[in-house]
Amino acid sequence: MKPTLVLVGRPNVGKSTLFNRLTRSRDALVADQPGLTRDRHYGIGRVGERDYLVVDTAGFDPVAKDGIMHEMAQQAEQAIAEADALLFLVDGRVGMTPHDQQIAERLRRADRPVYLVVNKAEGMNRAVAASEFHALGLGDPLAISASHGDGVKELVALVLEPFPQDADEAEETRDKSPRIAIVGRPNVGKSTLVNALLGEERVIAFDMPGTTRDAIAIPFERNGRKYTLIDTAGLRRRGKVFEAVEKFSVIKTLQAIERCNVVVLVLDAAQDISDQDAHIGGFVLDSGRALVVAVNKWDAVDDYRRERIKADISRKLGFLSFARFHYISALKGSGVAVVLKSVDAAFAAAMSDLSTPRLTRTLQVAVAKQAPPRHGVFRPKMRYAHQGGSNPPVVVIHGSALDQVPASYVRFLERSFIEAFKLQGTPLRIQFKTAHNPYATK
Ligand SMILES: Nc1nc2c(ncn2[C@@H]2O[C@H](COP(=O)(O)OP(=O)(O)OP(=O)(O)O)[C@@H](O)[C@H]2O)c(=O)[nH]1
Ligand SMILES: Nc1nc2c(ncn2[C@@H]2O[C@H](COP(=O)(O)OP(=O)(O)OP(=O)(O)O)[C@@H](O)[C@H]2O)c(=O)[nH]1
User: Fold this and answer.
1) Is residue 121 in contact with ligand 1, taking CB distance under 6 Å?
2) What is the ipTM for the molecules in this complex?
3) Which H helix or E strand runs over 131?
4) How many Cβ atoms are within 10 Å of 219's Cβ, its own excluded?
């Protein structure tokens, strides 16, 4: 599983700045989807070679007893409990404050590795900037500059070092059957859908999670096909049904998305699409996972409401249009079989092998139909394409002056490949490789 790094610190020490640097999209084109708004507190890590998740807790006041500060502290507590490592930021220009000491005291009790990070240290002697923070009793302070990037790579490498490269990751990518994560905000019907999927069918083996913190996986069979369900909420089996034993957790949701290869995003037809729905959808898009959307509780809403929710979806979740949407009732079991069929299709699309000659031909047809716009004196030239990865499929395009291709044209190319190869249910990524200037790619 990917390690989860949680940033804590008092307001204004630079947590958001560090968060942005740690999560800045490697592929700016993904970030450029119209209508996509992000939850600026949770992200997929992009610095260095290894993948990780980052959580930014808003200003953390461990002694707040009520009000908004108390609420924020509770959210921070949940994130601390679910963290694999804690990054405690302090401000090297301001120096140590009583608030830092309170937070340090809380973190000394956290049974997680804590890294003391002295930010805003650009242009300062790092040892001097760090020295007074030894008094916090959290080990050697590490001086960085989040805004300039100094020391950030080294910090990430150090923090990730103790975590083994995912042992089962390699095996999981070779998996021939879908690993499904059922995600959605609280009360939309995730457990009900899990039961509709698993209830009647054979659950091959289900071991109680016991003391392990890892998300559990439940293998099951349906219509002779094998699947694995990635748990997001600590499912417990009670008689014939599974129930969630933990409250909703964004971190667990993200970890499950990272661990699966097909996401089933559950929405509640009786409610309007919320920011939380959109943020979860944004994570799915960022992660590149295949996706099926189940609009649940269709039995409980009238025609007026049905029209309204469809309009709401197309307005707020347009960036998920690569996915199939199904209108289902998990409670009555209707539409569940179709969801699973789309899971199969999305999985197949995400894992497809795309032949180089066909990719190149598709590229040529697309360029003949609509050439990439000229940028200054250069017109991008696209010569050939080959596949660079799966789940999501990555198409690598070789040519010249490709670093200036606008996002709208990239989306046109994406659509062309998706149509030509009939890749329903998976996002597709395009990477450019320019012959003359190897540094201008990505
Ligand atoms: N000089 C310097 N300023 C920085 C650095 N990192 C962040 N800042 C500045 O510090 C201020 C606070 O940064 P934020 O990232 O918003 O801090 P925060 O901890 O997220 O603050 P809250 O959102 O209030 O919790 C901003 O003005 C940043 O530009 C740095 O490495 N060096
Ligand atoms: N009418 C109707 N109600 C449903 C349907 N699916 C679930 N519900 C109801 O919605 C409520 C929430 O369902 P759950 O399956 O517990 O939702 P959840 O997403 O797992 O909730 P959390 O565990 O809080 O994240 C329950 O009262 C269900 O009976 C459906 O298809 N139709």
Assistant:
1) no
2) 0.89
3) helix 126-131
4) 15
Q: Tens digit of pLDDT for each residue in 37-50?
A: 777 788 888 788 78
Decide if 393 is inside a domain: yes
147 in contact with ligand 1, CB cutoff 6 A: yes
Nearest Cα residue to atom 13 of ligand 2 = 189
- C-beta of 74 in contact with ligand 2 (< 6 A): no
Q: Whose CA is nearest to atom 32 of ligand 2?
A: 297
Both 201 and 275 in one domain: the answer is yes
Closest C-alpha residue for ligand 1 atom 9: 14
Domain boundary among 323, 350, 377: 350
Q: Is residue 318 part of a domain?
A: yes
In this prediction, residue 436 has a pLDDT band, given cuts at 50, 70 and 90, of low
Domain-ending residue, one of 105, 134, 160: 160
Starting at the edge strand that comes first in sequence, how are the strands of the sheet with 42-44 ordered? 42-44, 53-56, 4-8, 85-91, 114-119, 142-143
User: Is the distance from CB of 142 to CB of 155 less than 8 angstroms?
Assistant: yes
For the domain that residue 415 is a member of, what is the CATH number? 3.30.300.20
User: What residue's CA is closest to ligand 2, atom 21?
Assistant: 187
Q: Is residue 165 part of a domain?
A: no
Is the per-residue pLDDT at 366 higher than 90? yes
Assess whether 321 and 397 both reside in one domain: no
The two three-digit tokens of residue 358, written as one number: 């066909």
In the annotated binding site, the residues are: 9-16, 56-60, 119-122, 184-191, 231-235, 296-299
Here the tokens at position 64 are 């707040």
- Tokens found for residue 207: 């071991």
What is the pTM assigned to this prediction?
0.87
270 CB near ligand 2 (under 6 Å): no
Ligand 2 centre to CA of 189 (Å) is: 3
CA 124 – ligand 1 centroid, Å: 16
Residues 200-233: tens digit of each pLDDT: 555 555 555 443 445 577 888 888 889 998 878 7
Are 218 and 302 within one domain?
Answer: yes
Pick the ligand that lies closest to the CA of residue 188: 2
Q: What CATH number should be reported for the domain holding residue 192?
A: 3.40.50.300
Does the beta carbon of 20 lie inside 6 Å of ligand 1? no
User: Which domain range does residue 387 map to?
Assistant: 356-440
Q: How many domains, in total, are found in the chain? A: 3
**Beta carbons of 31 and 25 less than 8 angstroms apart:** yes
Return the closest-CA partner of residue 33 out of 359, 331, 344, 318.
318
Q: Is residue 428 part of a domain?
A: yes
Lowest mean pLDDT among 109-113, 163-167, 264-268: 163-167
